[in-house]
Each structure stands twice: as structure tokens, then as C-alpha cells.
Amino acid sequence: MSVDNGALANDIAAAGKNVGLDIDPKLVSFTIGYVASLTEKQDALLQNIQAMNRLEGYDIVIVCCSNQSQEDYWQSRLESVRGQVMPLSTIVLAVHEDWPGGAGNGLGTLYAYKKAVAKAQAVGKDLPALLAGGASVAMFHTAGKGTRLAPLPGSESNNKPAVKLPGIVDIDGRSMPLTILEGVIKQTGVYAASRGGRLSVFWGDQIFIPSKSCSYKPTAHVDILAMLGAWPTKEQWIAKGLDQFGLIAVSTAGAAAQVEKVDYDTAEKLLANLGEMASVGTSLGSFSVDHGILGALMEEFSAELAAKEGKLDTDPHFWMPMTLPRDGYIGLMGQKGVDAAKAGAHWDRVGAMVTKFRGTTGSTAPIFGAVDVGSNPFWWDYGQVKYFYDNNSKIVGKNFEAVAMRTFFGVDESSLNDGVVSLASKVGAGTQKNSLLVNCNIGTANVEDAILINVSAKSVTGKGVILYNVADEGDVALADGSIITDVAMPNEGKIVRMKSTLDTNGGKVWNDKVHGSPFSAAEVHKIHQTTDVAAAFAMIQKRLADFAQN
Q1: Displacement of CA 86 from its chain's centroid (Å)
Q2: Sheet strands (E) in 32-77
Q3: Is a pLDDT exceeding 50 seen at residue 2?
Q4: Which residue among 160, 261, 294, 303 is least enclosed by CB atoms within 10 Å?
């Protein structure tokens, strides 16, 4: 039976009018046709986004920052957006890593948890007891210079996760752009309902929308997100280039192991103790641990945590020695330049910890498992300036991913106007095509394929450009592919303008003054070591308000 979408849409609009609702029949017709055409994968993606938008998030959120100023900023900011990117009841605990030389993401996770326990205790909360009692806890790592995203992190006082995206939140009654970290917190909250009594650990510069249901029942003490596919033949392994990636391999019994950059024969040898293999795929790095194995890790590495010494990462120093045979582990670590005796001693240490844990708890559950995000998730990475431009540009498109992105960021389909998404913005005149504007107040804007976030100016002209935190009382005319951003330096009492291009690799020119910028990105990063993040933010906001044109 065929359905006339137009007739049905008119009927719905008429029914709405009878009860005082103004419904656009064209929008209804589009929605009916769109939903009817969804594939199973697309339906899963949209269902996951809808769950994210319901803010089914964590009971407790821990954010690991680079310094005290960032800790203070995020404690205040995230408390302000409860009920917008996470549940109103969420407890926020921002901490910072003061570990000389860096702890690595393994010890760094344990140290951040230790500091969060102390901070929670100071306000009368027993974090370990809450976790053991079934609370869902998430930790977000935000450290890193953001060299490949330069010059944008410099405009946020080295606070890389504070870089803004195409969403709007209310901060003390003001409409402000959503930050990357807030988007990540909202997105990852979809796993909270499945992770009571577990600590989930994520990184704060990418948003992913799984193409499989996010609801699952954990069966392993540790599990890690991965894009899994059926176990391949040797020929398929070679054709897919799987020897070039860190992989998660899963047996038919559900036990998993991590291997890094190995050929098919080596993989089968390393994984022989798991039995018949069912699937394999690339790791996303994000993981969760139950309160039992977390306690075991905290105890085992208590000396390092107390002394703030050592540097251990989760993959090579936690998961691989937990899941691989001793000889195989030593061989893989040898490829990383680690002495065999040292690698063997570490494998022995982790193995003894696991044996003690099983003996104490009596658990026979798998130590390590995988959570499949589907083979085709949406992956919006903002860790490089080119990715920042490309992924933000998707929101003005017409395909399914564009619609999904607008749904996630809360952009109404009816607000898409000639390929332009304009959020909390006012433009007096000009022509805008295929562009994103967020919190902009511009007299005249003639832009195409542009990303404008926090911009106040008399006029802006440019194609394929990024303007970020820019306030100018005059005319801003940019060459194609240009990037400009203003950087507040409250200690020096000034604001400077940094310049780059989409083709410039910030990591490669980190120490260079490029495109007429007064400082190198490295110099800006050094200056911001003592910057009060909140004071710099206030300087930029005042300047944007002073130069607003509408």
C-alpha cells in the first residue's frame, strides 16, 4: 500500500491548526519520507542520538585537566551545563594532573581517580563506595597541547577541550557555543545506563555515534570500544591492512585481547589461548573497568601514585600483559625497544595482580572484553584543524549524516537556510552560502564554505575560511583557506591575532611564526602556562560584546 506523503502531511498540518499549532506541511512531508527510507544502520544511529539527547548520562563525571586554572574553569562551566549535556543530578569533579613529565594514560587514569576520590571526600561524598554501590562514573582526559589544532587551542588559553562546536548552551542566562568536551560528555552518556558500578574512560576531542545499540550487559572486568567485524582469512587480513593497526580480537566465548601491528600468523599464535576467534577490529581506546579491577589496579600501582613517578599507558602496560602470553608480550614490547627482562618483569607483575584478584574475588569472568560500536559509526574528530573544518562543515549538508549531526547538536531542520546554519547569530546584510555561524554579530557577511564561531565585526568576506573568537571594529577580508583567531593574554593586558591556513600543519610549524602571526604557537602555549583561563575567556567575551554590530 502506497502512502501519499503530501496528502498525509496536509492532514497532519490541518489537525494541528485545529488545536492551535502552526505545522509546516513541507517539513512534515520531508520527515515522513525520510523516516520511511531509513536503513537498519541509520535507524540505530538515530536511536543512539535520541538517547544521547535524552541525557541518559553518568552519575559522576571526572575531568582530568592540565593545570589548576583549567580545573577551576571546568568545575564551574560543567556545573552550569548540568541538565543540558548531562543529568541535573550529575556530580562534577574536575581535577588536574600535577605529575612531573606526565603519567601516561594508564597511571594518569589511576591518579585522576585518586584525586577525584579526595575531592569528593572534601564535599562529603565517598566515591569508591558510590562506585561499588552501582553508580556510573565517567572520566574524560583533556590533556595535550593540541599542536595539530593550532591556532585554535591558543585562543582558549591552551584549554583544547574548550574549543567550540555548532551547538548552544545556556550559561548564566546567556547563549554560548557548546564546547568539544561538552559534546563528548553528552555523546558518551549513552553508555551510562549499561555501566553501573564501572568507571568509563574517554578522550575529550572526538564525538562518535555508534551504528549498533549502546545498551549492553558487561561480562568482563575491563571492556574496550572497538569497530568489530568477522574474523578474517589470512588474505582478508592482508587486504584490509590489519597489520598496521592496534586491534581488539574477540573469541567465540567473549574473551578479548589486544594486539598491535602484527601479521595474521603472529596474531593467531598470540591468541591461541583464547580458543576459536569470532571477530576483530580497530580499538577506539575508550574503555571501562568495574570497581573490583579498578581497586586492584589502584593497589598494585599505589607506590607509583604516591611518589608520582613512572609513565604507563593502558594498551601496552595494562591490557596487553593482561591478555597476551608472556613470550608474545615480550616480543611485541621488543618491537617498541623495551628490554626483554623489563618487559618480562612487567608481565609477571600484572599477571600476579590478576591472579591475586581472581583469588580474592573468586571471579571467573573474562578479564578483558570488547564493546562493538558497529562497523560504520559516525566519527567526528576535532583533533586537527582540517578535521575541525571538515567535520563542522558537514552540518550544513543534505545527506543523512548532516541530518544526524543537526539532530545531535539540537539544530532544527527548519533553521537550515540555503545551506547555512546560523545559531545565536545576527547578520545585517550580505550573502552566506554553505556556512556555519555560531554566536556571530556581523554587519555584513559575504562568506562561502566558512566556519565562523564567536565573531563580531563590521564586515567579513572569505571562502573556505575559519574565523574563531574574532572581534574587529573594521572589515575582515580573508584569502581563501585562511584561519584567524584572537588570543587573550590577560597577564600582558592585550589581545593578539594569530593566523594560519587549512593547509598548514600546526604540528610541523609549532615553533614557527607563520602567516604574519606575532607569535609561534609554541610561544602562545608557553605564555598561557600561567594564564587564568576564566580571565582570558572574559576578555574575549567583552571584546565580542564591544564590537557586536547588531
Answers
A1: 14
A2: 60-65
A3: no
A4: 303
Tens digits of residue pLDDT in 280-301: 999 999 999 999 999 999 999 9
Contacts of 492 (CB under 8 A, 6+ apart): 527
pLDDT in tens, 96-108: 999 999 999 999 9
Tens digits of residue pLDDT in 258-269: 998 899 999 999
Beta bridge partners of 440: 455
Mean pLDDT of 179-208: 96
Report field, pTM of the whole predicted structure over 0.85 = yes
In the chain, % helix, strand, coil (3-state, to 5) comes to 40, 30, 30
**Are 249 and 234 a contacting pair, CB within 8 Å?**
no
Please tell me the distance from the alpha carbon of residue 391 to that of residue 168, in angstroms, as a whole number: 17
pLDDT at 417: 83
The dihedral through the CA atoms of 386, 390, 391, 396 has a sign that is: positive
Nearest Cα residue to 405 out of 394, 420, 416: 394
Place of cell 573568537: 469
CA nearest to 317, candidates 353, 265, 363: 353
What does each C-alpha distance from 333 to 54, 69, 237, 316, 337 come to in angstroms? 43, 37, 22, 8, 7
Residue 16 has pLDDT above 60, yes or no: yes
Using a 10 angstrom Cβ sphere, with 0-12 exposed, 13-18 middle and 19 or more buried, the burial of residue 256 is buried
Closest CA to 406 of 49, 23, 42: 49
